[in-house]
């Protein structure tokens, strides 16, 4: 059985000591302690925190970086995959993930959630567990679910959680079922 990866999407802004950073760090540790590896966009903020948490707990932390960003990759990556376009980066992040967690973020994170959701909804990829953490995503997902229901499409593809432990438990139990 191949090592499973959880792709985590989130903001590059949070700094060590801030709540969003520490939540992401905790997620990385929880996933790693359950034998799961992580994949992120490879830079700072939430991406760094998740990679650090996974790394200190002994798991792989793959970062999918982008040539056009003048940013320093996280020092906690065990592997870096460099991409030349945003589409190539997004494609890699999605392909590597056996599951996805969406943490606090802005429009880039929204795009990542939307693409994963669309691919699953339109059966362009196999269904995979998708978990959003936080009130912001819960509000966005609820709003979109109303529209999806009106369009008579499948609802319930995205799960929302208010605490990181329950979010991690959902992903872990989904990926470690025999």
Q: What would you note in describing this structure?
A:
Helix content is 46%, strand content 17%. It contains six helices and seven strands; from the N terminus they run E-H-E-H-E-E-H-E-H-E-H-E-H. Helix 4 links the parallel strand 5 and strand 6. The protein has a single domain, classed as Rossmann fold, CATH 3.40.50.450. A seven-stranded parallel beta sheet has the order 4-3-2-1-5-6-7, sandwiched between helices. With 178 residues, the chain is α/β, with parallel strands linked by helices.
**Which percent range fits the helix content?**
40-55%
| CATH level 1 name | Alpha Beta
> What's the order of the H and E elements?
EHEHEEHEHEHEH
Low-confidence stretches: none
CATH architecture: 3-Layer(aba) Sandwich
| Classification by helices and strands | alpha/beta
SSE map:
Layout (H helix, E strand, L loop, with lengths): L4 E5 L9 H15 L3 E4 L5 H11 L4 E6 L12 E5 L2 H11 L2 E4 L4 H15 L8 E4 L1 H16 L8 E3 L2 H13 L2
Parallel strand pairs: 1-2, 1-5, 2-3, 3-4, 5-6, 6-7
List keywords for this structure.
7-stranded parallel sheet; 6 helices; 7 strands; 17% strand
What is shown here, in short?
Helix content is 46%, strand content 17%.
């Amino acid at each position: 059985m191949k090592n499973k990866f959880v792709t985590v999407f989130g903001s590059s802004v949070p700094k060590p000591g801030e709540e969003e950073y520490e939540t992401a760090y905790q997620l990385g540790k929880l996933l790693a302690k359950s034998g799961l590896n992580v994949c992120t966009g490879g830079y700072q903020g939430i991406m760094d925190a998740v990679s650090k948490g996974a790394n200190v707990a002994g798991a792989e932390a793959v970062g999918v970086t982008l040539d056009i960003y003048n940013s320093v990759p996280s020092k906690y990556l065990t592997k870096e995959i460099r991409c030349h376009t945003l589409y190539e980066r997004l494609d890699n992040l999605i392909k590597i993930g056996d599951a996805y967690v969406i943490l606090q973020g802005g429009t880039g994170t929204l795009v990542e959630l939307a693409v994963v959701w669309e691919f699953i909804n339109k059966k362009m990829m196999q269904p995979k567990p998708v978990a959003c953490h936080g009130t912001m995503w819960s509000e966005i997902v609820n709003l979109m679910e109303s529209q999806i229901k009106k369009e008579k499409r499948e609802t319930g593809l995205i799960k929302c959680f208010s605490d990181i432990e329950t979010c991690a438990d959902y992903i872990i139990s989904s990926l470690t079922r025999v």
